[in-house]
Structure formats: structure tokens, C-alpha cells
Design goal:
351 residues; 11 strands; globular; 5-stranded antiparallel sheet; Four Helix Bundle (Hemerythrin (Met), subunit A)
Length: 351
């Protein structure tokens, strides 16, 4: 049996989950930008994660925290299902596709051959969209964030396909993975758009306030602006790493910051700036757009730091760490200033 959702249109994008959601929203006749989805889900954050093989930073909330917040603000249902095993998830995906429902699933990236990744570089938070299958060929039809009009870099070269054809066994390995961080564990999403409510002044202000509070008053020192400050201190301690671990840390964090890693640029700060600019008509207080441009400038500063991480990843030169720490301190100060100003503007609007 073969089933394809003929009216589904694969598109490329900046970040895996926002691009996947953008495609599904569009399929159900709700055209929204990635930036709007990102901002309305209060996805912007920061965390310092001290994994054994390499410290890793992240510029957004954990997988599915964002989706839950987005659903609440847009008055829709997004349910994250976690079947007990792959066979159940496989059967459910086929049934949803037979009902012409595209399926967002989470996968562990190294198991997708078209990405050409090192088999030890596990990341199970990658979101892709299934929009068809063919039992005779034993394949699924997959939309990732690359597209013929939106090339992305991979370790084996530029990738720019409208969709990918992935074998059943290959996708089983990717979906069934329990490797950290963010194990895929066969998770997939179900949607109900029947109550959809477009963003309005109240929900936009609530989303922005939540982001400001999470960043400025984080529950742990590893998070928010406190996490950025900790990052500036911890990176000095990387001098004790051997050269190979330093290289791994350099490359890992380059991709956590750069658009090459699917952040949209500047560890998601560019996406957030674009969100603020887009919602400015809904929050007419003077200053929202200017803060949006400030975040885009901060993204450029983060990208300059990413260039240093690229160099660190290629050389393992511990002599880079001191000046990188100073850069991170300036970024922490800049973000704190921008977020406090944004929070003040939003609170003025509420009053």
C-alpha cells in the first residue's frame, strides 16, 4: 500500500520544530511564520549543560515545553504521544497518514543517513514531518528543514532536497533511540486546530513577559542570564580539557549558536528579534520594534562568538578561552539590558 498526502507542501526553514510546525499549521490553513511560533511559545532561553563528553549550551526551552505553551496561547491542542514501543508508533503514523494527517515525529539525528553525522553525536530532539509512506518500497516520505530553496550545511556537504525518502528500518533506529540529550523515544505529535485563536495583544504580551521572567529570574543558575554568566566563568575551566575534548566542545557549541545548527542565527536571538518586529502592530507602545532590532544585533554578536568556537573546534587552542569569556560577559550584560527594557515596555503597555 502507498499513501501520500498530496496537498501537503514541504518547505524549508530555520529551526527544526518551528519549521515542522509551520508546515503543519499551513496544511490546516493557518499561515504563520517561524518567528511568530517561536515567540508565542516563549521558546527563547539559555542553559548551560555540563555533559561528560562536552559542555553544551542551548538557547531555547526544552523540547515540548515550547509546544505546550504555544498550544495554550493559540487555543489549540498539541498532544505529545509516547508509545510504549516503535511498533505502536509505526502503526499510529501509518493510520494518521491514511487519514491525511501529516505527522511530526522526533528523531535522533545520527541515525538519519542523509544528515551524514558522526554516529556518536546524538540529539533526539530533531523534529521532522512524515507526509507519506510506501509499503512496497518500505519507506516513509519525510520533510526536514532543508529544501531546494533552502539549503543547509551537513558534515557531508550542502543538503537541499524538497523531501527525503527514508527506509522503515532507518527511521525505526532514529525514532526508537533513547540516547541523551533529549531522547526521541518514539514521540510524535497530535493536533486539534478547531479552537485556533490568532495572536492578539493580550497573548503576545503574556508570551513576552514569560520570556523576560524566565531569562531574568531563572529558577537555577544554569539558566537564563545567570546561565550566560556561568558560561563565561565555566569556559575558563575548559583549559583543563585535553585537546580532543576542547575540539569537541568547540564544534558542539558552534552548532548550538550558528544558523548552521538550525538556530536561525545567534543562538535563536535573531528569530526572537524577528518575532518582536512582527508583533509590533499588536503592541503599539513605542520601543518594541527597537528591542527587536537589538536582539538581531545581539544575534550578530553571538555569531561572532560562534566563529571563535569554530576556530576552537579546529585547533583545540586553549589560548582562545580568555577572550571568549570576556565576549560572553558582554553578551550577558547586553541581554540583561535588552530584556529589562523589554519588560518595562510591556508592563507599561499592560498598565
Amino acid at each position: 500500500m502507498k499513501q501520500m498526502i498530496e496537498t501537503f507542501t514541504p518547505t524549508g526553514g530555520q529551526h527544526c520544530i518551528t519549521n515542522a510546525l509551520k508546515q503543519v499549521f499551513s496544511y490546516y490553513h493557518h499561515s504563520v511564520s517561524e518567528a511568530l511560533l517561536f515567540g508565542m511559545g516563549a521558546a527563547l532561553n539559555f542553559s548551560y549543560i555540563n555533559l561528560s563528553h562536552s559542555p553544551m549550551i542551548s538557547g531555547r526551552t526544552k523540547p515540548f515545553e515550547f509546544e505546550q505553551k504555544l498550544a495554550k496561547r493559540l487555543n489549540i491542542q498539541i498532544n505529545c504521544r509516547r508509545p510504549k514501543n516503535y511498533d505502536i508508533g509505526f502503526a499510529k503514523a501509518r493510520k494518521m497518514l491514511q487519514q491525511n494527517q501529516p505527522v511530526i515525529i522526533y528523531v535522533d539525528m545520527p541515525f538519519l543517513k542523509y544528515l551524514g553525522m558522526n554516529q556518536t553525536s546524538h540529539f533526539g530532539g530533531r523534529a521532522i514531518v512524515l507526509f507519506g509512506y510506501d509499503d512496497e518500497q518500505s519507506v516513509f516520505y519525510v520533510s526536514d528543514r532543508d529544501h531546494s530553496k533552502f539549503p543547509i550545511p551537513t558534515p557531508i556537504g550542502e543538503l537541499a532536497k524538497d523531501y527525503h525518502v527514508v527506509g522503515y528500518q532507518e527511521l525505526e533506529h532514529a525514532r526508537n533511540s533513547s540516547f541523551r540529550p533529549f531522547p526521541a523515544n518514539n514521540k510524535y505529535l497530535e493536533f486539534d486546530f478547531s479552537g485556533y485563536r490568532a495572536p492578539n495583544t493580550e497573548t503576545v504580551i503574556a508570551a513576552i513577559n514569560e520570556t523576560c521572567e524566565a531569562m531574568l529570574q531563572p529558577p537555577a543558575k544554569l539558566l537564563g542570564v545567570d546561565g550566560i554568566a556561568k558560561f563565561s566563568r565555566e569556559i575558563i575551566k575548559w583549559r583543563t580539557f585535553d585537546k580532543q575534548k576542547l575540539k569537541t566542545a568547540g564544534m558542539t557549541n558552534y552548532f548550538q549558536i550558528s544558523k548552521d545548527g538550525g538556530t536561525g542565527g545567534g543562538i535563536f536571538r535573531k528569530l526572537y528579534g524577528e518575532f518582536l518586529i512582527e508583533v509590533e502592530p499588536l503592541v503599539p507602545t513605542i520601543g518594541i520594534k527597537e528591542i527587536g532590532y537589538r536582539f538581531i544585533h545581539l544575534a550578530e554578536e553571538w555569531d561572532r562568538l560562534a566563529e571563535r568556537f569554530w576556530k576552537l573546534g579546529n585547533t583545540g587552542d586553549s589560548g582562545l578561552l580568555g577572550s571568549m569569556s570576556e565576549q560572553i560577559t558582554r553578551l550577558e550584560e547586553g541581554e540583561k539590558e535588552a530584556l529589562k527594557r523589554l519588560q518595562m515596555i510591556i508592563n507599561d503597555e499592560k498598565s
